[in-house]
Amino acid sequence: MARRFIVKNEDINVLENNNINIRGPEVKHIQVLRHNVEDSIIVNENIYKIVSIGKDNIDLEYIKKAPQIGIPTSNITLYIGFLKSEKMDFLVQKSVEIGVKKIVPFFSKNVVVKLDEKARDKRREKLQKIADEACKQCGRMDTVQVEEFLDFKKLKSALNEEKVFFAYEASKDSLRNEIIDLKERKINNVGIIIGAEGGFAIQEAEELNSFKNVCCVSLGDRILRAETAAIKLLSIIIYEMEE
Ligand code: SAH
User: Fold this and answer.
1) Which of 44, 65, 86 corresponds to the end of one domain?
2) In 91-123, which positions are buried (b, 16+ CB within 10 angstroms) versus exposed (e)?
3) How far is the CA of 230 from the centre of ligand 1 (A)?
4) Looking at the 3D structure of the chain, how many domains does it have?
5) Strand (E) or helix (H) holding 230
6) Is the distance from the beta carbon of residue 12 to the nearest atom of ligand 1 less than 6 Å?
7) Which of 56, 73, 115, 142 has its CA 20 to 30 A from that of 202?
8) CA 210 to the chain's CA centroid
9) Residue pLDDT, tens place only, 29-41
10) Protein residue closest via CA to atom 11 of ligand 1
């Protein structure tokens, strides 16, 4: 199959007949790979033929939709307390492979990482790139959005999925019962909340737990690292939703 490139919407100019002109970092990438006029490539979810290659932009003729492979049938959003650098990179990559649809990093009381606004933008761009690369590498034909980082207050109003699993080590509630509920109600729109290295302050945990759509679950009596907890819970839920 043709090689795939992921181009941000702001770098795409839509022309007549679904043809497009693209700019930005993937243009360089396409040039470095020595693609020529007439080559077929995939940009985001469509197949195109290269019409002309300029210095900083490329004209593409729309051919057809790319085969819809590797796209999760479940709709899972991962809310993750901001982890220290490589751990965050690692978790973004792994959760894309496993099948998350959207990643929302957040800052709660015990998050150690501190980022000012400018640093947040830069960090988000890097994480988005990791997510894009992971989509390409694992052969999923959709994209996974790394959303703007939220402060805890905003996180609370963002939790609008039908059912949100909040992993909390102090919980006594069984995950099994909540999975049964998920399947009985045929829910397809799920959130997962995992705390950062320092976990949640009690008050924060109580607040999350007070939402009607949030269920607080234990992942067993061992305390897992945040990234382990995220991968464990995500894997269990996606398995149950997509089997
Ligand atoms: N508060 C803790 C541990 C944080 S572990 C401390 O500092 O000692 C990081 C995150 O992983 C937690 O916020 C929780 O979301 C998840 N987690 C880890 N182990 C878990 C378990 N046994 N059950 C549920 N969630 C767990």
Assistant:
1) 65
2) bbbbbbbbbbbbbbbbbbeebebebeeeeeeeb
3) 10
4) 2
5) helix 226-242
6) no
7) 115
8) 26
9) 999 999 999 999 9
10) 226
